[in-house]
Design a protein that fits this description.
By secondary structure, the protein is of the alpha/beta class. The chain is built from 10 helices and 6 strands. A 6-stranded parallel beta sheet has the order 2-1-3-4-5-6, with helices on both faces. The protein is globular. This is Response regulator transcription factor.
Length: 219
């Protein structure tokens, strides 16, 4: 049986004690490995330049360069990198800024022992990870926009493409979508490629964000 390579993680937090605790949570999982640590955002950027990193776990509030600033820099430097924000703040503003910065998920430190491992794995599958309060915030944000007459993006997809987009965003595989819509897997792949091209998106995570914004699925 071949062993899969563990997900290589950079952990950035200005408190050494927090880093130690988070490292303990991650390193006890066979598929996760902390390979670098940083005490602030600028150091995190340096570490990504010198280490082969798959996933960056960043505290939001750090000196010199915040986690949000670091997330933007890191993704500009290495677009394939996945980023998770780790924070003590159950704060909607931070949460929306994290999504805008390109983060795949938002994990509260108070429940890191429960949520962080699942969030890391979700990020590497290109799936967003949202804590319960964030889901409420997203729905409220969407309802506010509807109330203020801000329509979802212009209709650019065909009804069939919308169906495929909705199912992809809900986490169904191409095989499952093909069975549900009674079409071939090849046709599903073609629809998916067309959707990504039309919307200028890269992957399932961005498709999911679009589907939430367009009101096709609930967060």
């Amino acid at each position: 049986m071949t062993e899969t390579t563990p997900i290589r993680i950079l952990l950035a937090d200005d408190h050494a004690l927090v880093r130690r605790g988070v490292r303990l949570i991650l390193d006890r999982e066979p598929d996760l490995q902390v390979v670098a640590e940083a005490g602030d955002g600028a150091e995190a950027v340096d570490q990504v330049r010198t280490h082969d990193i798959d996933l960056a776990v960043l505290d939001i509030a750090m000196p010199r360069m915040t986690g949000l600033q670091a997330a933007r820099e890191l993704l500009a430097l290495k677009p394939a990198l996945r980023v998770l924000m780790l924070t003590m703040h159950d704060n909607e503003q931070y949460f929306f800024q994290a999504l805008k910065a390109g983060a795949s998920g938002y994990v509260l430190k108070s429940v890191a022992d429960r949520d962080l491992v699942a969030a890391c794995r979700a990020a590497m599958r290109d799936e967003p990870f949202l804590y319960p309060g964030a889901v409420t915030a997203l729905i409220r944000n969407y309802l506010d926009r509807v109330r203020h007459g801000q329509e979802p993006p212009d209709q650019v997809l065909t009804p069939r493409e919308e169906e495929v987009l909705k199912l992809v965003a809900e986490g169904h595989s191409s095989k499952e979508i093909a069975e549900m819509l009674v079409i071939s897997i090849k046709t599903v792949h073609r629809h998916r490629a067309n959707i990504l091209h039309k919307l200028g998106l890269r992957d399932r995570l961005e498709l999911t964000r679009y589907a939430i914004r367009a009101g096709l699925i609930e967060p």
